[in-house]
Design a protein that fits this description.
Strand content: 35-45%
CATH class of the domain at 3-121: Alpha Beta
Organism: Jiella mangrovi
CATH architecture of the domain at 3-121: 3-Layer(aba) Sandwich
Mean pLDDT: 91
Distance between the termini: 34 Å
EC number: 2.3.1.-
Keywords: Acyltransferase, Transferase
CATH superfamily of the domain at 3-121: Gcn5-related N-acetyltransferase (GNAT)
Enzyme class: transferase
Strand order of the largest sheet: 1-2-3-4-5-7-6
Pfam families: Acetyltransf_1
Length: about 170
């Protein structure tokens, strides 16, 4: 296990994290893997992340006091109350160091063990092979391809829809 992983903390985001979250989400590679526009203001970030319902969970990964990743789970309502939608991103300088694994593992645990969600879903840029591999490792499967669904740096790119259906609980016998 890398040294940084032993000092990593995954926790609930706080409003005092706002400036760090805004800086993280405005990094070029972080933004490239999301649908965020460049130069998101602090006020827009606050509204999007902290002006939401109690069914929204926002986590951060912290190393040595710095935010190195974030992940969210939005629990849906009504006839889709068994579904959670995920989003996540990792700091440009901390890719492939276990940050995404730590965040995704925590959200899957929250979903399965605390919220009883049956379905987790997400979308990912079709050319983001490391993220796709991470999701597959956690039981997500490809459900569809949205062709030319997002404009990124002047080019239309495809996104993939992926989902994970919670495995049947094991008997305590």
């Amino acid at each position: 296990m890398p040294e940084a992983a032993s000092a990593r903390l995954v926790r609930a985001a706080r409003e005092s994290d706002l400036e760090g979250l805004n800086a993280l989400m405005n990094l070029p590679n972080y933004r490239r893997g999301t649908l965020r526009l460049p130069h998101e203001s602090l006020a827009a970030t606050k509204n999007r992340l902290f002006g939401v319902s109690s069914d929204f969970t926002l986590l951060v990964a912290e190393e040595a006091g710095a935010l190195v990743g974030t992940a969210s789970l939005n629990r849906l309502a009504g006839r889709r109350s068994h579904v959670g939608q995920l989003g996540m991103g990792v700091h440009d300088d901390h890719l492939r160091r276990g940050v995404g694994t730590a965040l995704l593992s925590e959200l899957v645990s929250l979903s399965d063990e605390w919220l009883g969600l049956v379905r987790l879903e997400l979308d990912v840029m079709a050319d983001n092979a490391p993220a796709i591999a991470l999701y597959e490792k956690h039981g997500f499967a490809l459900e569809g391809r949205l062709r030319a669904s997002a404009l990124r740096e002047g080019v239309l790119v495809d996104t993939l829809m992926m989902a994970r259906i919670r495995p049947a609980p094991q008997s305590a016998d």
